[in-house]
Amino acid sequence: MSEISHILPLSKPKEGISKTGTWRLKKPVIDHSKCVKCLMCWLHCPESTIDVVESSEKFVEVNYEFCKGCGVCANVCPVKAISMVPEG
Amino acid sequence: MIVGGISIRELPRKKYLLPGNSSCPGCPEALGLRYLGMALGDRVILVVPAGCSTVIEGLAPNYSMRFPIVNVPFASADAVASGVATAKEVLGEDAVVVVWAGDGATADIGFATLSGAAERGDNIIHICVDNEAYMNTGIQRSSLTPYGAWTTTTWTGKKERKKDVPLIMLMHKVPYVATASVGYPMDFIEKLRRAASIKGFKYIHLHAPCPTGWRFDPSLTVEVAKLAVETGMWILFEAINGKVKISPSSLPYRDRSRRKPIRDYIKIQGRFRALTDKELRKLESMVDDVWDTLIKFT
Ligand SMILES: Cc1ncc(C[n+]2csc(CCOP(=O)(O)OP(=O)(O)O)c2C)c(N)n1
Ligand code: SF4
User: Are strands B96-102 and B44-49 parallel, antiparallel or unpaired?
Assistant: First the structure.
């Protein structure tokens, strides 16, 4: 592989190619006291920017460095634990 | 939630679509790629003709996915996939070779090689990611754009109907044909796993509402996808060896009276803004026609 990689345009996977968190107009804020741990936001996040942390304070967490603020998570949450707050 | 024996909790958490990619906010193709990773993980080798997903991958020397990918010209996609699948078989290595192609790549530009691979029974899965237009180049119509929809090449709404590609693939007499939607991830994951367990040619048509091209708010991708099913505009089904079975999420809508009005679906999308009442009635009769035809194969 290494001897051909300079002739062929071979790419390698990389997380965080662009800091897409800067695209955000609204920020999803999770009220962890309301969260029922159903995983719907994790499942439906188009960006892979919701992580399941399962700590004592929170079950899921948003990676704001890359979250684009689409708002899909807030709409799929069955208990409306996620609100979209305008960025300052 | 458990659907078809799969529980959300058991789905792999490994990321196959990586954060920091260049999809638009609320992108259905990004959602579909995540579900593909959850369903089949490391077994997948993707073959991708040009489209939004190519852009989501990004530029060399890095890319935003964890699938091995061969990027190919449109008209070669299924032929390349056939070659990759055969090579893996000769080497005795396990792989699920998946063509991940847009509606333009599937139904228009790449249709010849798709049909060829289906006729030969090559051991691949072709997934048509149907956002109902050529989005990557700026929202031009495809043969899968629905009747009445605005695109940059159908200013007053498309005058022709949506081509029924799943039925065309069914008529190739391949062992597996299914439709899916990004609004029903568990159904899609179940179908992907079933397809991967079958040898031969498999076709899955994934409905993918695109906020950028359909003109709706990016937070509504899942709602729009669900409304397509609830209004009967999109029918979820699965056909193993030619026998069509309407999937549980679409089954209630076999009965026309249980469908939500198609107006509910089109009014939240800017692309149908200019649709007249007469055109809406024509669209409704086209939807009834698609159901009637499909039910004949059940
Ligand atoms: C042979 C050829 N013709 C035209 C193009 C330009 N082109 C790149 S992507 C694209 C549209 C693809 O549309 P679709 O398959 O629906 O995928 P989407 O972008 O919607 O995901 C076109 C026409 C090309 N790359 N190669
Ligand atoms: S145009 Fe549509 S399909 Fe393409 S990247 Fe944007 S949201 Fe996704």
Answer: parallel
